[in-house]
Amino acid sequence: MTATDRLTEMLHLGMNTALVIHDPSNILYLTEGYAGEGMVYLTAERKAIITDFRYTEAAEKAAPGFEVVMTDTDHPHEKRLAELCRRDGVTELRFESNYLSVDDFENLRAAVGEEVSYVPLKKAPQTIREIKTPAEIVTMRKAAAITSEAFEAVLPKIRVGMTELELRLELENCMFRLGAEALAFSTIIASGVNGSLPHAVPGTRTLRRGDMITMDFGAKVGGYCSDMTRTVALGEPSPEMRKVYSTVLRAQTMCEAALAAGKNCFEIDRLARDYIDSQGYAGRFGHGLGHCVGIDIHENPRLSPSCHDTLKAGMVITVEPGIYLPGIGGVRIENTCLVKENGSEPLTTARKELVIL
Ligand code: GLY
Ligand code: MN
Questions:
Q1: Residues 124/13, Cβ–Cβ less than 8 Å
Q2: Neighbouring residues of 301: CB distance < 8 A, sequence distance ≥ 6
Q3: In this structure, which residue's CA is closest to atom 2 in ligand 1?
Q4: Which atom of ligand 1 is nearest to the CA of 217?
Q5: Contact between residue 256 and residue 319 where contact means Cβ atoms under 8 Å apart
Q6: Rounded to the nearest whole angstrom, what is the distance from the C-alpha of residue 99 to the centroid of ligand 1?
Q7: How far apart are CA 23 and CA 67, in angstroms?
């Protein structure tokens, strides 16, 4: 079944209903390979990519099942969309109200006309994206393997005196050499006291003996992301940071073992939170335990106190507890995991025990 079949079937699209998709992640998913600009038009019968000259050939190659409609100066995207709607007798157009700006929507409505009704899609494409197909899982395994191998490859390069920025460059080089097509997100490197910043931006701080260094990084392969975090020690860490590390490791391992289809997201999050609190770190784990990953680095559902969704087999989700102590440092350990009927499988395979360099 194609991605567009999955979506049109879920929505029970009637004869005169069309969808217009602007979100590039949804476009990539629904076309199963087109990563250029433009919009996708879908009915139960037809599928089209509306794009400009720069991308028409790429669209034809990447999405052979789609009609490719080229824009020009007199016929911009909205006009082309209006032509397709008229041709197909569309009376209801479903659009991504979560993605389109008010201006973009007004332009679209002005071109397509007032007689058509406009209905929000309510993130239906994102909903079908929650469960990964076997082909998507193959791709995500490759992305995860690159990060796991890049972690091992960068360890011998970590030295006292190098800056966080230099370490980022080494780590990203490793990922690209191992086959990353792009980065999944901006790499986080947080050394020493900077470790208390969960999303630290790497800077000119130099690495010192006794530092813990958190590296949070991901590769993209075939449009799909991986996401992993490891914290390593440069020389012997303090007893306090050793305790922080073992607490985070225990929380991570416990929650990963608890992942399975049928479990509730907030309950997995609470396992980590209760354990970390019980070890004397209440309030020092201030973010959610994890998030689904796919074409986007952050997808739903989330492992967080506010997410009451049920996990399903085929979801790919991170488990990433952390403890952050301002003025001292921090530790986060993150694996990307595949949810299965009776458990889970880490796609991230790098070792988790404390590495002391
Ligand atoms: N890896 C970055 C994040 O999950 O927020
Ligand atoms: Mn993450």
A1: no
A2: 130, 265, 292, 307, 309, 311, 315, 317
A3: 216
A4: 1
A5: yes
A6: 21
A7: 19
